[in-house]
Amino acid sequence: MISRILVPMDDSEMARRALEYALENHPEAAITVLHVVGEPSLMGGAATALALEEDIEEAAEEHSKAVFEGARELAAEYDAQITTEVQMGHPARAILNRADDFDAIVLGSHSGSLVDRLVVGNVAQKVVRQSPIPVIVAR
């Protein structure tokens, strides 16, 4: 029985669908929404801007607010409570590092820009291949 589910989320429609799947199909499960704030890279972007902040952890929490608010609103539609967690680092690695505390991972099939997928690789693919627990990929 699946009683603890990890749902990695960004602000994409696919991530929203993953949470929706978890809420619909596992209404009794404890759901944790994980938002991973990327590491600074040579490609720049939001992670590099984050690295310039005085308090990186506080900035990461602030960066995650919109994702978590959307997740809570969706959970409320299902009369469900979720917990939230923010991590910093490479998304696939952060997800896999948390996997042992859950019974399953539910994630969207893809998100991010073409550059993100080419440089970082497909997060869902990495998680599916390396996860020690079942992974459900929502489309």
Largest sheet: 5 strands, parallel
State the helicity in percent bands: 40-55%
Tell me, what is the CATH class? Alpha Beta
Number of strands: 5
Low-pLDDT windows of residues: 40-45
Number of domains: 1
Compressed to H and E, one letter per element, the order equals EHEHHEHEHHE
Provide the structure class: alpha/beta
Strand content: 15-25%
Describe this structure as you would to a colleague.
Helices cover 46% and strands 21% of the residues. It is α/β, with parallel strands linked by helices and 139 residues long. It has a single domain, classed as Rossmann fold (3-Layer(aba) Sandwich). The chain has a five-stranded parallel β-sheet with strand order 3-2-1-4-5, with helices on both faces. α1 (13-25) crosses α3 and α4 (91-98) runs parallel beside α6. The longest helix is centred in the middle third of the chain and has 22 residues, at 56-77. The two termini are 22 Å apart. The model is unreliable at 40-45 (pLDDT under 50). It comes from Halogeometricum pallidum JCM 14848. Pfam families: Usp. Belongs to the universal stress protein A family. Residues 1-139 form the UspA domain. This is UspA domain-containing protein.
